[in-house]
Specification:
Strand content: 5-15%
Number of helices: 39
Radius of gyration: 33 Å
Strand order of the largest sheet: 12-11-10-13-14-25-24-21-17-15-16
Number of strands: 25
Helix content: 40-55%
Distance between the termini: 58 Å
Length: 1052
């Protein structure tokens, strides 16, 4: 379906909507049970039928009717009755002999399946079971459809006998479960917390009974409630426990296994147990998706929604309500992923389902989601129409979509320039969100108000509003224990920080002497690399000490399963496969990643050492000047924005700030430079060597101009004070891919002094006079990359007082990747000679190369030997004292060597091999070592990300002389999450890694010069890297050959 078709479908569906407010109508997010029973309903009903064992009753029930049944019980007797629904959702209420309500049952199975009722009689007498249509649906049908719905059900006594202790436990569990559902119906934050308390009471009882079905349902409900309360980590913990239980639950629950013949008789479509379990599984998947979406993990959310929707649609008795919810959420997620066509398609499918159900809250949600898509497409008039339609439906119980519609109307009015109406609707939305306890909605609305006030020029009021939004965001972030999910959550809120920065810089322009630029710099630090600060702090804390062994064993088991599943998926994708096989394998891997994340969060939550940690705080200007800089160092910190970007230049005694072009302009220039630099790595089909040579020569020529333009854009404001200072670069977005060392010195804006007058966008003078040359920055400057200035301060604190390693350097290089490698053949020939056997001829046919299988099982496809990495290793080893170095090449460059505790004895650890990056799941990235042993047999040679984290290094320096090892998954506000961070966590003070694939011969040459400068000339790593790069530049080598490597971390 194309965009035009999707739009047309939605317009047709909504053309007949009655947008007027319907008096007396009330809708909700789930069918609710009644909170109280009227006094009249407790009076003995002479029309009640007596329910006897072995005598099932089947009847039709209409909206507004109540069917009563009488059961005589003696004190201490146990009753297990079943009301089996077919086509109508019922509520079953049990009254005691005194007329008081004992329990009320409405299971999560909509209009199909059993409602089990259990009672232990405390007194002898007649007990009454009332069966009525679920109040939610009855109310809708009476007030909206003006007609009476009907359906059939059957009721029978499953058991009536003396109660056992297990019966009483079961009753206590189900009573607590039902009480929690009753409390949930009040739909307030306080009622959700009280519901959790009751469900937590029920959970151990169901576990003691071995009732895995009810255990799974209780876990799901607790996860749902924590999600509503804005505690996503806890929500995922409980939902993650529920999911495998649903999948493992047996064919059917006990109450549907018996009386098979009666079920068949009273129900035309047979009720199968797996449907009920699939319902629970699907609902759990849906709730997990909701939580991931709230955390900003929209792709993960989409993956879980896809699974949930497939289950809903596979059920024989399809739950249209649940299917509509999943479709609506899918549309919302597609919008958040920037795919409006797919968003409108999913929302267009949800809308008629909600309308058929007369579920106005769902319609309201869908309509306001459609409005959000139109706003994204730039059609604010149409967006406003959809939001107002949603608002006309969103009343009564539909408080969440009402708040969302009000917020979105405010957003559109702000876009249209009607600031007064924007503030009016934002104010209404804010009040609704606060009543609901929706902290994320409150923060978003406060940020919207701040933006309007900022545009109005009310900067002080705008600052108060955005700071309130950020305080909520920071508070919500602390509830997420997992570093990965914290990162995602903060990434989803970067627009708040961007607005705050822009606001503070506007205040700085208005009041340049009031320190607003310093506050903006602190806000910039607050917005970036926060998770890195925290993991560096915990790295030396041994947070697993004091944690229950069972939890640690669970973590190890999941890591092993992850390895196996990753290998299986890679093998599958490297061969012929069906889409179903791929989906299944990806789902299994995704489930394990979620479980692993949950277990790690539980480890942190239960760790005494983690609890004792003081969470690091981003540095202020004064702290940066005192803890990070010296007189020879200049910090250049960049923040990119949609409307304008900023640069802060900081020395130990000054700060200057500058406005730069907007993000799109800067990133386009940065991407162009990177593309030109890496032209040698690009290949074109059918291209001859001469054609490639010409293409590369043209790219080199264009690079000079493109690099000069980018340098002018980024560095012209600070050209005068650059001098020969060391440059600490804190970059963002695509700038993280730029080798600043290779950029030419910028054109100086000749002013005679460095002041805020230079803070306008850089420009050349009228004569185009240039005061610079084409020398790259590295000629005059050491260049050090940092994720944030605060990260360096934390790194120094964590490494303070550490004793240096006793030995100099360990090198792992030239691994063996293939079984047909000459080194394998050589060993085989030597072994054959020793056994006095005739070796196979070199040209003899061989079996399928084991290296392909081994590489695939290690998470890769195939790797070429890096022959010059051996030269690299030999050159490094020759520079180290004989007893102070380790050279592990060939088969010894393996995973066992890399994970050995002996590696902690070396100040420098050097990997000269391939790196493997997984941008979707950084935890599956790693370093590739020997994939076969001396016999040519496959072995696990993939040093995975989590294994890197578990290394205990004492290294001053880790060098990753491999392909693009400085890169990783780019996360807003966090930077590149990849191998570099893993080695810093493992104990490296600094890491040298590459931004692109470099010819291994050129790399070997650069590394020889680098180590010569360090080990013989005594230079610090940053200075040594600069010396090596300058030496190659002087030989007229293109930047491609020397500029890829960058140092991250400590420069001292």
């Amino acid at each position: 379906m194309n965009l035009r078709t999707a739009v047309l479908s939605i317009l047709i569906l909504t053309s007949a909507l009655n947008t007027s407010l319907i008096p007396g109508f009330s809708s909700g997010l789930r069918p609710q049970t009644s909170d109280q029973i009227s006094p009249q309903s407790a009076i003995h009903n002479p029309q009640s039928k007596e329910l006897l064992p072995g005598t099932p009753i089947e009847r039709e029930l209409k909206g507004g009717e109540t069917h009563s049944y009488r059961v005589t019980l003696a004190a201490g007797q146990y009753l297990h009755a079943v009301v089996n629904q077919h086509g109508i959702d019922v509520v079953v209420t049990v009254f005691g002999p005194d007329g008081q309500t004992m329990t009320e049952v409405d299971s999560f199975n909509s209009s199909q399946g059993p409602e089990p009722v259990t009672v232990v009689a405390e007194a002898s007498g007649d007990y009454r079971l009332d069966v009525r249509v679920n109040e939610f649906w009855r109310q809708e049908e009476e007030t909206v459809r003006k007609q009476t719905a009907s359906g059939r059900y059957a009721v029978w006594i499953e058991e009536r006998r003396e109660a056992t202790p297990e019966d009483r436990t079961c009753l206590a569990a189900k009573t607590a479960l039902a009480e929690g559902l009753r409390l949930r119906a009040q739909w307030t934050a306080e009622s959700f917390r009280r519901s959790i308390e009751r469900w937590e009471e029920a959970l151990p009882l169901f576990r003691a009974l071995g009732d895995r079905h009810e255990e799974a349902e209780t876990l799901r409900l607790i996860g749902w409630a924590y999600g509503r309360l804005g505690e996503p980590q806890k929500a995922l913990e409980y939902l993650g426990e529920a999911l495998p239980l649903w999948r493992a639950v047996g064919e059917r629950r006990a109450d549907s296994l018996e009386h098979e013949e009666f079920i068949a008789k009273c129900q035309p479509a047979p009720l199968t147990g797996p449907v009920g379990n699939r319902q629970g599984e699907a609902e759990t998947l849906y709730r997990i998706a909701e939580v991931y979406s709230e955390l900003g993990e929209h792709q993960k959310a989409l993956d879980f929604l896809t699974q949930a929707l497939a289950l809903y649609r596979a059920m024989e008795n399809r739950n249209r309500y649940a299917e509509a919810n999943a479709l609506r959420k899918t549309g919302e997620v597609y919008w958040l992923l920037g795919e409006p066509e797919k968003a409108l398609e999913s929302l267009g499918q949800a809308l008629p389902l909600y309308r058929a159900l007369h579920y106005y809250a769902g319609e309201a949600w869908t309509l306001t989601n459609i409005g959000e898509v139109y706003h994204f497409l730039g059609d604010d008039v149409k967006a406003l129409d959809f939001h107002h339609r949603a608002l006309s439906l969103a009343h009564g119980e539909a408080r969440y979509p009402e708040a969302a519609a009000l917020h979105n109307i405010g957003l559109v009015y702000a876009s249209l320039g009607d600031k007064q109406k924007a503030i009016e609707y934002y104010g209404q939305a804010l009040a609704r969100y606060r009543v609901l306890g929706d902290r994320n909605g409150e923060a978003a609305t406060l940020a919207g108000i701040a933006r309007v006030e900022c545009d109005w020029g009310n900067l002080i009021e705008a600052r108060a509003q955005i700071e309130a939004a950020l305080n909520i965001t920071e508070s919500q972030r602390t509830k997420v224990v997992s570093p990965g999910l914290r990162t995602s959550f903060l990434a989803s809120k970067q627009n708040y920080y961007e607005l705050y920065l822009d606001l503070l810089m506007r205040l700085h322009n208005r009041e340049p002497a009031n320190g607003h630029d310093a506050n903006a710099l602190k806000a910039s630090e607050r917005a970036r690399a926060r998770s890195l600060l925290e993991i560096l702090t915990e790295a030396r804390a041994d947070i697993r000490q004091g944690v229950k062994p069972a939890l640690l064993e669970r973590e190890r088991g999941l890591q092993q399963q992850l390895d196996a599943k990753a290998e299986r998926l890679t093998r599958l994708l490297s061969s012929k496969y069906t889409e179903e096989q791929k989906t299944t394998a990806e789902k299994e891997l995704s489930d394990l990643l979620m479980q692993s994340q949950d277990v790690q969060a539980q480890i942190r939550a239960s760790s005494p050492r983690y609890a004792a940690l003081t969470q690091p705080q981003p540095l202020s200007l004064k702290e940066i000047q005192q803890q990070v800089l010296d007189d020879d160092t200049l910090l250049l910190e960049y923040a990119l924005g949609d409307e304008r970007s900023f640069l802060w230049a900081v020395t130990p005694n000054s700060i200057h700030s500058f406005e730069l072009p907007k993000r799109a302009e800067i990133e386009a220039a940065a991407r162009r430079v990177y593309e030109l630099l890496t032209t040698r790595n690009q290949s074109k089909a059918g291209e001859t060597p001469e054609q490639k040579r010409q293409r590369v020569a043209q790219a080199d020529a264009e690079y000079v101009k493109a690099a000069a333009a980018l340098s002018q854009m980024l560095l012209a404001p600070v050209a005068a004070p650059l001098g020969t200072k060391r440059l600490l670069i804190v970059a963002e977005g695509t700038l993280q891919y730029v080798p600043f060392a290779a950029l030419p010195r910028p054109v100086s804006l000749v002013t005679g002094h460095w002041s805020l007058a230079d803070s306008k966008r850089p420009r050349t003078n009228d004569q185009g006079r240039m005061t610079n040359d084409t020398r790259p920055l590295v000629v005059d400057h050491e260049i050090v990359s940092l994720p944030s200035a605060s990260a360096l301060a934390v790194l120094r604190k964590e490494l303070a007082g550490r004793q240096p390693a006793a030995k100099t350097v360990a090198v792992l290089a030239d691994p063996v990747f293939q079984s047909n490698d000459a080194r394998v053949k050589q060993i085989r020939m030597e072994a054959a000679k020793k056994a006095n056997e005739t070796p196979a001829l070199p040209g003899a046919p061989s079996i399928e190369p084991d290296v392909e299988r081994s590489a695939r099982e290690s998470g890769a496809t195939s790797f070429q030997r890096l022959r010059f990495s051996r030269v690299e290793a030999e050159g490094i080893a020759a520079l180290a004292p004989a007893a102070a170095g380790l050279k592990a090449v060939d088969f010894e460059a393996n995973k066992l060597t890399a994970t050995s505790v002996d590696l902690s004895q070396y100040r420098i650890v050097h990997f000269a091999t391939h790196g493997l990056l997984n941008s979707q799941h950084p935890e599956l990235s790693g370093v590739v070592l020997s994939l076969v042993d001396e016999e040519g047999e496959p072995q696990d040679g993939f040093l995975r990300f989590y294994e890197i984290y578990n290394l205990k290094l004492n290294a001053d320096l880790v060098v990753l002389s491999a392909c693009q090892t400085a890169l990783g998954k780019e996360v807003k506000g966090e930077g590149l999450v990849g191998l570099t961070r893993g080695f810093m966590y493992a104990g490296a003070a600094r890491v040298v890694a590459s931004l692109w694939n470099v010819q291994d011969k050129a790399t070997a040459e650069l590394m020889r010069r680098f180590y010569q400068a360090m080990l013989k000339d005594g230079l610090r790593p940053a200075a040594a890297l600069r010396a090596a790069q300058v030496a190659m530049w002087k030989e007229k080598r293109a930047p491609y050959y020397w500029a890829a490597f960058a140092l991250q971390g400590e420069w001292k």
